[in-house]
Amino acid sequence: MQKRFLFSLIILYTSKGFAQQSLEDTTIITDRPDLTESSRAVPYKSIQIETGFLMLVEKPSESSEFSTTLYQFPTTLVRFGFLKNAELRIFNQFVNERANNPSTPFNERSTYGIDNLQIGTKINLTTEKGLRPEIALLSHVVLPFGTDDFKNAKTLFNFVFSLSHTLSNKLSLGYNLGWTTDNINANGTGTYTLVFGYTISPKIGFYTEAYGLLKNLETGTLGLDGGVTYLLNNKIQLDLSVARSVSEENYFFSTGFSWLIPEVF
């Protein structure tokens, strides 16, 4: 399930503090629904909860005669602002995987359970200044604590550099470059994303994104997705997104809810 790596890239480092707005004026910045992780940690002493539903469909391919539908609900990321420039991140999800062979349509396999536990951090490295982007480092460990059907054979690691630019008062650019160990590829898997965000109104945002994997640092994949976000207020966000792989027969649909709770501790 190499494609699932892109939906679990989260999160150990330290740096100098960022100047922050008063929390009453701060608007929530999330790592969902796009696959590009934001370049901003949650505010100090705050908790942010990002949860949702995702359906990933994989059509039969040269390597598998099965069509697979993967349901992930809830996909829950909890972010704790434990320093002025860093956050602790904990992620897990419930998974239901259904596989069937189109030539035997009544022979469906269904497995469900808890995915592997992911723990890590996001650290702000630089603020944006001129041509210099805002940069954050995300690194995390994937612990094999899930249900047997989904549990990894060993502990895995990944890291992501997240960069962003403000192009105008309505348009922004973000991109990620990362690498993860995995159970299949000896040299691990490289990851990349590129996203353009557009503010339609103070409450509504839109994005379009390209993303992919570089397996064993050799063969690559490419996908495209887009979505919308809606602010109920500056601390609560709703989202909706869809994606389609260009290089492989798969697509996903996702919807979710995010809540910033300021100065909890």
Structure description:
The protein is mainly beta and 265 residues long. The protein contains no helices and 14 strands. Strand 13 and strand 14 (250-261) form a beta hairpin. The chain is globular and about 55 Å long. Mean pLDDT is 88; it is low at 1-21.
Our estimate of the beta-strand percent is over 45%
Summed over residues and divided by their number, the pLDDT gives a mean of 88
Major sheet: size, sense and barrel closure? Answer: 12 strands, antiparallel, barrel
Structural domain tally: 1
Shape: globular
CATH fold category name: Porin
Order of helices and strands: EEEEEEEEEEEEEE
User: Helices and strands: which structural class?
Assistant: mainly beta
Q: Using DSSP, what is the number of strands?
A: 14
CATH class: Mainly Beta
Any idea what the CATH superfamily is called?
monomeric porin ompg
Q: Unreliable segments (pLDDT under 50, ≥5 consecutive)?
A: 1-21
Helix content: under 10%
Question: What can be said about this structure in brief?
Answer:
The chain is mainly beta and 265 residues long.
Give the SSE layout.
Elements lengths: L46 E12 L8 E17 L2 E16 L2 E11 L2 E10 L7 E10 L12 E11 L4 E10 L8 E11 L4 E12 L3 E2 L2 E11 L2 E10 L4 E12 L4
Antiparallel strand pairs: 1-2, 1-14, 2-3, 3-4, 3-5, 5-6, 6-7, 7-8, 8-9, 9-10, 10-11, 10-12, 12-13, 13-14
Keywords:
mainly beta, 265 residues, twelve-stranded antiparallel beta barrel, disordered N terminus, Porin
